[in-house]
Amino acid sequence: MVVASPLGLRSVVGAPGDKERDFDFLSSIEILSLFMSDVFLMQNWEHLIHCLEHLNLQPSSTEHTDFSRVKQWVLEGHGRYFRQNLVFSSLGAAQISALFGKECVNHRGLVKVSPHSFKDVLSHILYPVRQVFSRMRDKKEDEGLVDYLTNGRYQYFVDNMLPRLQSSDMSNIVILIPSYYDFIRIRNYFKRENLKFSQLSEYSTNKTITNVRRDFAEGNVKYLLTTERFFFFKRYKLQRVQQVVFYECPVYAECYTHYVNMLAEEGAVSTLLYNKLDGEKLVRVVGERQCKQLINSQQ
């Protein structure tokens, strides 16, 4: 039995070129259990993928192997197709579903158990805030291009959303970006355009967090870029927020209510950008009925 976190196991498995690495002990795994898989999304998902790719490989050494106890299908390299995979998560996500298409495969197929319905979190909003759900529509969306999920969203934000924010009289604007990679991309764009902003991420020190929160509350900066991981690990509240922009629908629905409930200023507004491929996350925020209406909306 091996009990480990993705990061801890990754440090043992290592990478090509490392002097010391070992993954032979993973060659005989017959049952894989991933508990609280949604939490892995708040870490580096690549660590998990890297570890799964090293399960049930042919061992590099057979010095201590008793071949009389090794099953034939293992010797033939089919161990991954006989391995049982148990994945538990409090929510659905595309990354988790994708595991069963490549890393977690079994010759007997799979069984998925999920709730029949989803309850929205809009009732958890404390103040009568104007909430805008803006659909990003582009011809590439209908073509189903994977590239649209990243470059299309980025281009839409830069060409459509950001000019509106710049021309707005509002200050103290929070831009929440779930993905850290998108966060870096938007941050670099703000730097190139010489836009005055602050940033908070899961890597920010306590001193930095204190200084940024104070400057933002005092109105010294117009934009504050932050990540969903910062919410997940820190859960700070910000003062004098006038507008919240969700670059993408957050993984955790409570992240949405957490930031919308900061909008206590008069005329405050929240904006969530989404496309038709965000339904799995959007349904946890607005519920099934409104999610269908938003996905089918042309605006």
Tell me what you see in this structure.
- α1 packs across α3 and α13 crosses α14.
- This protein is an alpha/beta fold.
- The chain has 14 helices and eight strands.
- The protein is elongated.
- The N and C termini lie far apart (52 Å).
- It is 37% helix and 13% strand.
- The strands form two sheets. It has a six-stranded parallel beta sheet with strand order 3-8-7-4-6-5, with helices on both faces.
Give the SSE string.
HEHHHHEHEHHEHEHEHEHEHH
Question: How far do the termini sit from each other?
Answer: 52 Å
Structural class, from secondary structure content? Answer: alpha/beta
Q: What share of residues is helical?
A: 25-40%
Biggest sheet: strands, sense, closure? 6 strands, parallel
Number of helices: 14
Strand order of the largest sheet: 3-8-7-4-6-5
Mean pLDDT figure:
89
Low-confidence stretches: none
β-strand number: 8
What Rg, in angstroms, do the CA atoms define? 23 Å
Strand share of the residues?
5-15%
What characteristic shape results from the CA principal axes?
A: elongated
